[in-house]
Amino acid sequence: MTESEIRLAQLAQSIGRARRIASGAAVTEEPAGYPSLAADFSQTKSAAVSEDGGSFLKSQTVSHNGDCLVSLLASGSSGNAAFIRCGRTCVLIDAGISCRRIEKGLRRFGYALSDLDAVLITHEHTDHVSGLPVLLKRTHMPVYTTQETWQAMGNKILPYMDRFVRLPRRLSLGEMQIVPFATSHDAARSVGYSLYHGDCKITLATDLGCITPDVMTAASWSDMLILEANHDETMLRNGPYPYALQQRILGNQGHLSNRTAAEFLSSLPRRGMVKVLLAHRSEHNNTPALTVQTMRDVLTGHGLVIGQDMLLRLASATGSVRFLNGGTL
């Protein structure tokens, strides 16, 4: 870690310690590696689970007392885009839906394309970048991603080469500090992102074939977490997908199952209640009810109380839910 990263880690640790002292909880030291980076990107090219299965979330939003807003404008195999505002700084993570849908989603919160400071790309798959060319045509903002991901997107983004910014080890963007981390997925060089603003940490970790130490480190101590819960394994194995595709999804470079996501959450270091958006749910190999039931079974089995230790919400392609400061719905 650089000196500045160490200072950031120490600040986060002191905030966590102060929170626990204020709440009367026992104080233990958080790991010195928080926040840590998976890869050096500069050196290489009880009742808080929504069970609405029909109209639950075209735009899933959480607001936090660190003056942060997190919204999934879309989530799933048909398209993904996340809008995150920290203070006066706004970013889009992925652009896998049309520019028109992105505009519509932003307007819901009183924002426009012109308010975006940058777009961050996790990887080159169509459901994460299909709207990027038109978005770049309509705006002048930079695109942050890995060199490998930019090249893998091909000719459709060549006219916008001047917008490409290769991901650094850590990025200072307005009022945000952004730390990318490596993920295990069948893409050129996929990443997730942790964003810091004041005492708030937000992490996006989707399209995960498995939980690597890098992902665990990145997600630890997050206040808000966007986490993949893609499929139910039994439903996938008995579903319409051919065997080869099933194996790809189940593999270490595929997607995260409900159960694996729940086990991960149960072992995640936390500071107070974590707000979790369960994202990238398969339309064919999962249901809201299965996701909710698996989360409830696993988390309660580990002694965690939903609504006290974790607040869970399901993301999908339709509907909306919003948390205001202090957790108001």
From TrEMBL:
What SUPFAM superfamilies does UniProt report for this protein, alphabetically?
Metallo-hydrolase/oxidoreductase
Task: List residues of the Metallo-beta-lactamase domain.
Answer: 78-255
Tell me where on the tree of life, at the top rank, the source sits.
Bacteria
InterPro entries referenced in this protein's UniProt entry, alphabetically: Metallo-B-lactamas, RibonucZ/Hydroxyglut_hydro, WalJ/YycJ-like
- Name-wise, this protein is MBL fold metallo-hydrolase
User: From which organism does this entry originate?
Assistant: Megasphaera hexanoica
